[in-house]
Amino acid sequence: MNLKSRLFRKPWQHKDPAIRARAVHESDAPELLAALPDLAQHDPSVEVRIAALKRINTEPFWLDARLRESDERIVAAADAYLIRSVARTRADMLGKERLEWFTRVEDVDVIRRMAAEAVDPALRRAALERISAQGFLGDCFASEADDSIAAELLERIDQVSTLERLAERLRKTSKQRAQAVARRMADLQAADGRSDPDHKAAENLVRKIEALVRGASEGDQLEQLEQLQAQWTELRDPEASLVRRFEGAARICRVALDRPAPASGSPAVDEPATQSDEPAPDPALNAAADRIHSAFRQHKKSLKPGELLGDWDRTWNLIKAPSEADQALKEEMLPLLRELQAQVEQKANRADRESVARGDSAATDPNADFEPRLDAVAERLEAGDIAGSNELIRALRSDFDRLPKRSRPQQAGGRLQRMEGRLKEMRNWQHWSNNQHRDELIERLEALPGSGQHPDAITAALKAAREEWQRLEKLEVLPGDRKRFAAPPGQWRRFQEACKNAFETAKPFFEKRNEVQNDNLEQLEKFIEMGLELAADEAAESKRLHGTMRSARLAIRRLDDLPPKTRGRSAARLRELMDAVSARLDERFERIELTKRRLITEARALAHEKDLKTAIDRAKALQAEWQKAGSGRRRIEQKLWEEFREPIDPLFEQLKGERDEQKQADKAALAELEALCVQAEALLEVADEELESARGRMAGLTEDWFSRGGRPPRLNQRFEKAEASFKKRMASIEQAARERARARLEQLAELVQTLWQRRQASEPEALTSELPEPEKDDNALCLGLIARARALASPDGDGTEIEAKVARNEEAARQVAVEMEFISGLETPEEDRKRRMDYQVKRLAERMSERGAHRDLVAELDSLVRRWYEALPLPAEVQGDLARRFRKSRELIENMIGQ
């Protein structure tokens, strides 16, 4: 880009998007036209891209924009164009992109429009696959031009009312499709168990007897009529409409066949008839009836229905006063007369249709007036219809020239000549205008190689240009012209060269695509071979067969990915594969359905089983076998499942009732368990003084709790928590009681020792001042200490005896301290080691004599404590040391036993 181009950019290169969009919309500069593809794809402004797309306005670019862009305005504009374009033209090289676009369309009306109006079969098929409305599918089936799509549609229609409507609609327009609809309806009825063979037999008999009425049969007609009537009586309940048709045709045949034909020697019409007892009808009327009967019996084609009917009417009208015999004959002839009248009306309608098809011959009569025809030419010329005007003028000139010169209307001839000049002038103007248009086409084609468009878009543009070129040729080269081409040779060569250069640009892409298509074909052939082998394998799994069927259906929808010349053969092979897989699946379905019918029989037998548990277990086993058998045809599978569930459901309903009762019982038991938990938790709230009495109630609740079964873990945890809390509280109270008892013993022991020491110190006034009174919780040790304290404080006590007792107490207390140190494992002072050794030997001897019996440490501790307090008071000089040894050993032993 030079400096000038940088400084003075084009309007479509401006920084302002609005200026660029206006330039793209209004400018016709060649540089802009060449830059339109790039602007449509890469310009950052949405308005500019939309303007460029509207200027190009071709399907490839709109498709590319629709698949690439996300802006709602571009998407809406692309959809608006593509809906019109895609519905009117075939896909050619853009089939894949069209289908990809169509998958993004969600508008139901657009989908229905594509299903009904799209020219491209692949697009119609894709649209129809997204529609499930039975009535709409039926209408599309009736109007579908592609037989394969029609066959696919018919397979999807399973509504009987729609099929009946289609059968009635197609009976006169497409016999082949009407028969296909009838087969489909019969298959559905057979699958649902609603097929009625008598209905088909009735229709067949009606067709045969109506053919007999029309004379389309050979042989003895009376015998055929009797055979048909005998077969009709064997039908069980034919439809009323078929009954009316059969009986009406039978009456006509019977009337035509029962009347005897006139003999060759019968009297003439004007001769008197032989006298008879019964009144005879008019001879002429009788002869007319004989002629009608003879025509029906002999199937004369030369006698037209109108003539027979007219003969009868003329004869009847000549009779001035019809007799009863004449009236009876008329009543007898009424069925045949109605048949004749129907044939007359049918021929008249056929003649009218043929007349309409032939057209009015007076319009082409060369001797007709020229002025109306010249007026028609003038209207065509004013409308710009050159081809139609040329055709009318050529016909007029031909008719005019065939007339003798003297008979030619001069005024019409002059007017015709002026119109020929006008036509020539219009053709010259059109030729000039078309040449300008051809130059524009050539310029567009010459810009294609450097446009960077997709090869399919280039091909589509080439095809559109060629179609436009041919259209221009058809506008100029009219019927009867000697020249074959209207375009100048040089212009034609430029057009061909531009087409060639554009195609050379896209050629490598097509070569690569052909290579990919060949690879796809090779893979498809391998898939078909593997699928056929799988279909031939009787042990093949249903899942693999269904997968192969789905892949085959997908492959048949993607035939555009194969080389064009192989698509038909590949489609045939895919149909062969699908037929083989379908046959294998049908065989598998039949086995599955046979197995499930056997299971239904076994399920019905469960009604006679008396033991509900045995019946339920067997029903569950049958259900497992049902699942293991696999899935059959969907419609039949649902029906079989309902039959299978019919005898089993009552069993499970009964089981459900029993389970409900059990649930109610469990619920009541659970409520009782919760009540026990509530009672246990309530015992935690009683006062401390009542806790001892609550111990028995807690024991009763615990016993009741563990006697019940079905305790849920949640309630177990709740009750155990309450029980543990109760025990913990009891243990705490007991521990507090023990501590109080110990403190009381220590207090009393200290008092006894103090009284002894005061007694030794000769302090009589202090002996009685602190004497305690017994308390209600005092045990035997406490009471013994109180008694001892009173004895020490009593002035009447023997001092010598008390001193001797205290001296003995030292020995007993020292022995207790040694034994407790032995049990606790503490060291014993040197002065008492021998005592400890003696105790150890004694204890060992006792254990050996008891033969392995173990002593209760708690009871032994209680005995030692009792002996200690019974050994009080002690001499003052040893009391402190022995008491310290006692307490230390006692603390260790209590830790050992967990107190």
Produce the secondary structure layout.
Elements: H1 3-7, H2 17-26, H3 30-42, H4 46-56, H5 59-68, H6 72-88, H7 95-103, H8 108-117, H9 121-129, H10 134-143, H11 147-156, H12 160-170, H13 175-191, H14 197-214, H15 221-233, H16 240-258, H17 283-298, H18 305-318, H19 324-358, H20 370-383, H21 386-402, H22 410-447, H23 455-476, H24 489-536, H25 542-557, H26 567-605, H27 612-629, H28 634-682, H29 688-707, H30 713-760, H31 780-793, H32 799-824, H33 833-849, H34 857-870, H35 876-897
End-to-end separation = 105 Å
Instruction: State the helicity in percent bands.
Output: over 70%
Question: Could you say which overall geometry the principal axes of the C-alpha atoms support?
Answer: elongated
Secondary-structure class: mainly alpha
What percent of residues are in strands?
under 5%
Number of DSSP E strands? 0
- Mean pLDDT across residues: 78
**Discrete helix count:** 35
Instruction: From the alpha carbons, calculate the radius of gyration and give it in angstroms.
Output: 60 Å
| Major β-sheet profile | none
- Residue stretches low in confidence (pLDDT < 50, at least 5 long) are 1-8, 260-277, 355-368
